Amino acid sequence: MRELDARIDRWVEAGVISPATGEDLRRFEAAHADADSPPSLDAEPSPTPPAPPRALALVGEVVGYLGAALVVSAVSFLVSRTWGDLPTAGRIGLVGALLAVVAVGGTLASRPPSAPAQRLASVLLAATVGLSAWFAWVVIDAATVSDDLEAPLVSGIALAVAATVYALRRRALAQLALLVTLCVFVSLTLAAALEPREQLISLIIGLAIAAIGLAWVGLAVTRRLEPARLALVTGGLVAVFGLQAGSFEEGRWWMLALAVALSVAMIVIAITRSPLTLLIVPGGLGMLVAVPRLIERLVGDALATWVAVMVTGVALVVAAVMMVRERGRPRTP
C-alpha cells in the first residue's frame, strides 16, 4: 500500500492525474485491500493505524483559510486607519511583506500532493495575483508615473503574474485569475488609448472582450486550456457579455443582435456536439439577457419584451429536452 501511495503521489506531482483522482484511487484500493489479499493464519494483528494524513491536511486547509481571513481583516483595519499617515517606504514595505507571505505560503502549500493542500495553494496563489496588482500600484504611484500609463502598467503586471501562476499550475482558480486579469488589462489599455475618442471606448472594448472570449473557447476546444470544461463556460460567457457591454450606447442594437446570434450558435453546438455540451450555459444565459434587451431596443414595448422572454424560455426548454433525449438514447453497436 505504501508503494501505491508513493506512485500516486508521483502521478499527481507529474500532472498525470488530478489530486482528486489520486484520493479516489487511495480510497478504492483501501476498500478492496482486504478482499484482494486472503488473510494469513501466521499474520500478527496489525496495530491501530495512526490518524490518516489526509484528515490532518484537511484541518490544515481550514486553518489556512482562517488565518488568511484574519490577515485580511487585520490589514484592512490597519490600512483604513493608518494608510494616509504611512510614508511611501512604509506602504511599499507593508504590501510587499504581505505579498511575500502569501506567495511563499502558496508555493509551499502546492508541494504536497493532497487535495486539501492543492486547494489551499490555489487560493493563496490567486490572492498573490491581486496582491501583485496592489504592490505594483503602490510602487508606480510612488514613482509618479503618468496617470494614463498607471492603470495599464498595474494590470499588465498582474496579468504577467497570473500567466506565470497558470503556467505552473493549470488549475481552475489559476485559469479564472488569468482570464479576469487579461480582460482587465485589455479594457484599461484600450480605455487609455481611446480616451480622446470617448464615444468609441465601450464599442471597441466590448468587441475586444468578445474576441478574448471566443479565443478562450477555441483554446478550450483544442485542449490548450485546462480544465477545458471551465474554459468553455467562462469563455462563452465573456464573449456574449462582451458584445452586450458594447451595446449600451444608442443605435448599437446590432451588438445585441450579434450577442443573440452567438448565443443561438452556442446552443446549437451544445445540442449537436456532445463534447461541447457545456456551451449551453453561456448560450442560455446570453439568450435570457440579450433577447429582451434587443426587443425593447427595437420595439420599445413592455408587452413585446415579456413575450420575447417567454419565447426565449420555451426555446431553452425545447433545447434542454432535445439534449436529454439525445444523451439518453441508447447507442446501437
Automatic annotation (TrEMBL):
Keyword set, alphabetical order: Membrane, Transmembrane, Transmembrane helix
Coiled-coil parts of chain: none
Domain DUF2157 span(s) in chain numbering: 9-173
Spans through the membrane: 62-83, 89-108, 120-140, 152-169, 176-194, 200-221, 228-247, 253-271, 278-295, 301-324
Region (Disordered): 32-52
Record-given protein name: DUF2157 domain-containing protein
Organism: Demequina sediminis
Lineage: Bacteria, Bacillati, Actinomycetota, Actinomycetes, Micrococcales
